[in-house]
Amino acid sequence: MGKESIVIVGGGIVGIFSALYLKKKYSKVVLVDKGILGGLLNSYNENGTMFDFGTHIPMDVMNLEIDKILFDSISEENWEIFNDLKVANYFLGKLDTNTVYPDLRKFDEQVFYNSFHQLLVANGFDMNNDVNLKDYYSSKFGELISENVYRKIIYKFTGKNLEELHYKNSRLFDINRIVVGENTLTKKLKQIPEYDDVIAEVKYDTTNSIRKMYYPKNNKGIGLWIDNLRNKLLQSEVIIKEYNSLAAIENIDSQVKKIVLEDGEVIHTNHLVWSLPTSLLMKALRVNNNKEKRIEFRKTLLINYQFDRDFLVESHYINCLDNKFKSFRITLYPNLTQTLKEKEIFNCTIELFLDNSEEMSDIYYEVVAEELLKMGVISVNHRVINRSFSVIGNGFPILNRKFMDEETERREFIENNYKNIVLVGKANIENFFMRDSLLDTYHQINKL
Ligand SMILES: Cc1cc2nc3c(=O)[nH]c(=O)nc-3n(C[C@H](O)[C@H](O)[C@H](O)COP(=O)(O)OP(=O)(O)OC[C@H]3O[C@@H](n4cnc5c(N)ncnc54)[C@H](O)[C@@H]3O)c2cc1C
């Protein structure tokens, strides 16, 4: 092990993984978080029931080193380990428990045939930084699907029109395929690579997948994963600094030398791993950054209910794509672990988006419960035993074109001017999902 030290800023899953991985190479690893470790992967207790910050079902990254670090402490005694993810979507007034993707056949016959024809003759997407989301969807699916399906879904999710968004915004939501027909037709079409990328199987089937997914048993919430990893960090002698922000970064000759924490502590370091948005790093480096102040996030509200009886569907989660409904994603915890059913805990979380001017109001409890009823998730006999809500500060980012251009400039500036800073996680905002972010992090920190 080398004698060098390293500071990692941001203690979400990306920072935690980086610390555990780098501890094999560096004698001193310091992990700094302004709050508690875990970021969006913490759980919270409401009247004795655990709720997560949205759906977070960890799954193998399919990289042996990463998976060993993150999942080797998971045991069957305390965890559900499965590979058959049960997903659903609600679109144009109908629940489909086979897939997360919208089904074109829900439109009337004429719209279906015209849209399907356009999809078959679409040019395909030519990757180019200047492309907005409108060009992206119409080149992949044709004009009709772009307008009738994606414009409405994206407006619901982001509050923006397709033209205002960078095409990479498409990566933040699992909607980039569409169901067009029954199994035989789908299979034939999917043999053609350009259709494989846009057409979805009628049934989202992961039963034969070797990728394992994990969820805690016994009402522990996904925060159990973070508790396990915290123990691992402590055993590895990673130094954890929670509730501690950075006051300043001091550098000499394009090399970060010292990190000053808000409590005045000075940490000498050879490297800095940065897992937060680049604009925060520019601020800490005191670089004059007269670009847009910060990234815009979609205000995300989590509504939690505990019901008196089990749900009517078996899905792990349902993505509500219907723009007439406020709900976005509905996580049905007892379907993730039978142990909740045994304890008669029937709880769910509904993620929904608010405009910046909107605040949580009791009306949303009624609206969302009504939507669950209309979707067929609960019956008229279901009674709410408890309800609560929580707001996510930095939820889904809104990637507009101006921001993405500025982000590229910031990254280039940092990479060209600071030799010992590595940008991971949210410093590379287009990697939103855990798997993408962890894989990217692995590649970045291996450059050290
Ligand atoms: C509502 C929602 C649902 C999601 N669902 C899924 C899903 O189903 N599947 C999936 O793969 N991904 C999902 N994601 C994305 C997933 O949450 C992220 O990929 C993952 O949490 C990213 O981890 P991270 O470490 O980069 O960031 P975070 O989890 O955000 O952690 C960042 C950490 O940095 C700390 N921090 C912030 N500012 C500072 C500062 N100035 N100084 C020091 N520390 C600071 C924070 O306290 C936090 O602990 C979802 C995200 C949201 C918002």
Report on the architecture of this protein.
There is one protein chain. By secondary structure, the chain is α/β, with parallel strands linked by helices. It folds into three domains: 2-42 and 62-81 and 215-292 and 400-445, FAD/NAD(P)-binding domain (3-Layer(bba) Sandwich); 101-196, no CATH class; 296-398, Alpha-Beta Complex (Polyamine Oxidase, Chain A, domain 2), CATH 3.90.660. Helix content is 31%, strand content 25%. The strands form five sheets. Strands 7-6-15-16-17-14-18 form a seven-stranded mixed sheet. Strands 9-2-1-13-19 form a five-stranded parallel sheet. A hairpin with a 2-residue loop joins β10 (246-252) and β11. The structure holds flavin-adenine dinucleotide. Flavin-adenine dinucleotide binds at residues 9-15, 32-35, 39-41, 54-56, 245-246, 275-276, 280, 300, 351, 392, 395-396, 425-426, 432-435, 437.
The rounded Rg comes to: 23 Å
Low-confidence stretches: none
- Whole-number mean pLDDT: 94
Separation of the first and last Cα atoms? 14 Å
Which ligands accompany this protein? flavin-adenine dinucleotide
The number of domains? 3
Helix segment tally: 14
> What is the CATH homologous superfamily assignment of the largest domain?
FAD/NAD(P)-binding domain
How many distinct beta strands? 19
Strand line-up of the largest beta sheet: 7-6-15-16-17-14-18
Kindly report the CATH topology of the largest domain: FAD/NAD(P)-binding domain
Question: Structural class of the helices, strands and pairings?
Answer: alpha/beta
Query: What's the CATH architecture name of the largest domain?
Result: 3-Layer(bba) Sandwich
- Give the strand content: 25-35%
* Rough outline: globular
Helix content: 25-40%
Largest sheet: 7 strands, mixed
